[in-house]
Amino acid sequence: MKNNGNPYIPHAATVEEAWNETYGDRCIRTFKVVFDDEEIRESWEHRPGQCAIIGILGVGESMISISSSPTEGKFLRFSVMRMGKVTKALHQLEPGDKMMVRGPYGNSFPVEEWKGKNILTIGGGIGQAPLRPIVEYVKANKDDYGDLTTIYGSRTSDDLCFRNEFENMMEDDSVSCHLSVDVEEQDWPHFVGFVPTLLMEVNPSPENRIAITCGPPIMIKFVLENLKKLGFEDEQIYTTLENRMKCGIGKCGRCNAGNLYVCKDGPVFNYATLKQVPEAFA
Ligand SMILES: Cc1cc2nc3c(=O)[nH]c(=O)nc-3n(C[C@H](O)[C@H](O)[C@H](O)COP(=O)(O)OP(=O)(O)OC[C@H]3O[C@@H](n4cnc5c(N)ncnc54)[C@H](O)[C@@H]3O)c2cc1C
Ligand code: FES
Predict the structure, then answer these.
(1) Is residue 86 within 6 Å of ligand 1 at its C-beta?
(2) Phi, psi torsion values for 131, nearest 5 degrees
(3) Of 56, 95, 112, 255, which residue is the least packed, with the fewest Cβ within 10 Å?
(4) Weakest mean pLDDT among 16-25, 57-66, 198-207, 255-264
C-alpha cells in the first residue's frame, strides 16, 4: 500500500451511499465508502473478518468491522450501531460527506483453509456485520466451497440488518437461509424464537462443516452449547470478539482477554483456543 500499510495513517474516504438498516435509539446505519486517493483505493487489501478504525476529524474514531467482502469491489462497507459520541457523529454522514479510515486491522477468517468445506454462519443483531463478508465471499467463490447455510435473528423485524439481502438469498437455491425474530409479529413469515433454537430447527450436519457465530454474548453461549449438541467439534467453530480497543496493534493492552490480544491475535478466534481463556466469555 502507498504508506507501506502504516496503520496509524488515516485516509480520507467519501461516503458514496448511506442508509439506515434498523430503527430506534440504537439503530444501525450502513455506509459504502470509497477512498479519495486512487492509489490507496487500488492497493487497499482486506480479508473477510478484518476491521478498520473509522472516524471524523475533531470527533474521534471507532473500531468497526468491514462488512463488505473484497470480492464486491473497490469500496468498503461499514454497518455502525449508534452508541456514543463517535458513532452518533458517523450517523450524521450522508452521501458526499467524508470519513477517515485506517487499517485494515486484525486477523481474518481462514478462507483458504476452509476450501472444500460446508459453511454455516449464525448471527444475531449487529453481529451479522463481521459475518456478512464471509457470506458474500463464499457466494462469490462457490466452486471452492460446499454448501452455505446462514442463520440470522434479531429481537424484532425492525432490528434486522441486511433484511433485503437475506430475503434475496431466500430466493437463491444455492444458499440455505433462515431468519428469526424473538417474539411473534403480525405478517412475519419466518421463524419466531431465539437464534440458538432456530439452529436446532435447521439441524445442520457437522460433517465437513465450519460454523461461525457472532452476536450478543448470551446468544453465543447458547449457540456454542447447541453446536456441541449437534456434534460439532471445538475446532470446527469460530467466533469474533469485540473487546474495547485503543491502539489496534497490540501496544496499549486495552483489549486483552487473558493472554490474548483481541486486536493482534483476533478478532477471529477458533473455539478450541478461546475455551482455554475463561476471560474471553466474561
Ligand atoms: C473488533 C471490533 C469490531 C467492531 N465492529 C463493530 C461494527 O461492525 N459495528 C458497530 O456498530 N460496532 C462495532 N464495534 C463496536 C464499536 O467499536 C463501538 O460501539 C464504538 O467504538 C462506540 O464508540 P462511541 O464513541 O460511539 O461510543 P462510546 O461513547 O465510546 O460508548 C457508548 C457505549 O458503548 C459501549 N461500548 C463501546 N465500545 C464497546 C465495545 N467494543 N463493546 C461493548 N460495548 C462497547 C460503552 O461502554 C458505552 O456504554 C466493534 C468493536 C470491535 C473492538
Ligand atoms: S487495542 Fe491496544 S493492545 Fe489491543
Answers:
(1) yes
(2) -85, -25
(3) 112
(4) 255-264
CATH assignment of the domain containing 73? 2.40.30.10
The finding on whether 52 has its CB within 6 A of some atom of ligand 1 is no
Evaluate whether 138 touches 72 at the Cβ level (below 8 Å).
no
CATH number for 166? 3.40.50.80
Please check whether residues 85 and 127 belong to one and the same domain.
no
Boundaries of domain holding 233: 118-240
The C-alpha cell that represents 73 in the structure block:
469491489
In this predicted model, what pLDDT tens digit does every residue of 110-147 receive, in sequence order?
999 999 999 999 999 999 999 999 999 999 999 999 99
Among the bound ligands, name the one nearest to the CA of residue 52. 1
Closest CA to ligand 1's atom 41: 244
Residue nearest to atom 28 of ligand 1 (CA): 84
User: Cα–Cα distance between 132 and 150 in angstroms, integer?
Assistant: 10
Pair (98, 124) in one structural domain: no
Pocket residues: Cβ below 6 A from ligand 2: 245-248, 250-255, 261, 263
| pTM value > 0.90 | yes
Query: Does residue 124 share a domain with residue 83?
Result: no
Q: Which of 40, 38, 35, 29 shows the shortest CA–CA distance to 16?
A: 35
Of the residues 63, 261, 269, 279, which should be mutated to test ligand 2's pocket, given the most ligand atoms within 8 Å of the CB? Answer: 261
Q: Which ligand is nearest to the CA of 61?
A: 1
CA 271 / ligand 2 centre spacing (Å): 21
Residue 161, SS3 per DSSP = coil
Same structural domain for residues 94 and 36? yes
Lookup: cell for 188: 412475519
**Residues 35, 128: one domain?**
no
Distance between Cα 83 and ligand 1 center (Å): 7
Domain assignment present for residue 278? The answer is: no
